[in-house]
Design a protein that fits this description.
Number of helices: 7
Largest sheet: 4 strands, mixed
Helix content: 25-40%
Shape: elongated
Distance between the termini: 13 Å
Order of helices and strands: EEEEEHHHEHEHEHEH
Structural class: alpha+beta
């Protein structure tokens, strides 16, 4: 049994974070790879060749890995770590999340706009409520999350959330039940960690 007393699940691969030393589900980690010229690059799609280096999906762990030279130790070679690495990770995770929400919209699993979202919440169709970080607190307080773990996120700006719906800005969005929704949830949790935002995840187990 790994640290934290969590039972291992065969269907859920785990890796060890080089910064915390904890073994976690891959869903809670970010994979990095070393390019042929020795530069550390984020691999959020987990497709780059070579031995993966894993770091917990939170800014504290990422900063520690950079500051303490842990990437080179894990790679067992001299590597170059760009100063922009945290920003690069954040950008890639945000792009992945907005892309997945867009896929959910095209599949009929996501809606945007106060009234549509309120309707879905009222009918019990919504599984996740997204609200823009730069939206009005008063307006956002008028909608209540569906409840449960990872049911509410404030991790994307209105412009970023708008990209998923082909609009300039979106303040409120909701996703219904489906496998794609679960993938969106995992992406949102990871981005929240890197952006050091609670994101409405106070009830989410992130280990």
């Amino acid at each position: 049994m790994p640290r934290g007393g969590r039972p291992r699940t065969r269907s859920e691969p785990e890796r060890r974070c080089i910064a915390t030393g904890e073994t976690r589900s891959k869903r809670r980690l970010i994979r990095f790879a070393v390019s042929p010229d020795g530069q550390v690059v984020p691999d959020v799609l987990e497709k780059l060749p070579g031995r993966g280096i894993w770091v917990a999906a939170n800014r504290t762990a990422l900063d520690a890995a950079m500051r303490q030279g842990l990437f080179g130790r894990a790679a067992r070679r001299q590597v170059s770590v760009p100063e922009t690495l945290p920003a690069d990770v954040e950008m890639l995770l945000a792009r992945r999340l907005t892309g997945r929400i867009s896929m959910a919209r095209k599949a009929g699993l996501a809606v945007a706009g106060f009234e549509r979202v309120k309707e879905w919440l009222g009918r019990g169709e919504a599984r996740i409520l997204f609200q823009a970080t730069d939206g009005s607190d008063r307006g956002k307080s008028r909608l209540h999350p569906p409840g449960g773990r990872g049911s509410h996120f404030e991790v994307l700006t209105a412009s970023e959330l708008g990209l998923s719906f082909g609009r300039e800005r979106v303040i409120h969005a909701a996703l219904g039940r489906g496998d794609l929704t679960e993938l969106v949830r995992e992406d949102a949790i990871r981005l929240s960690g890197v952006r050091e935002l609670d994101g409405g995840m106070s009830t989410v187990e992130v280990k």
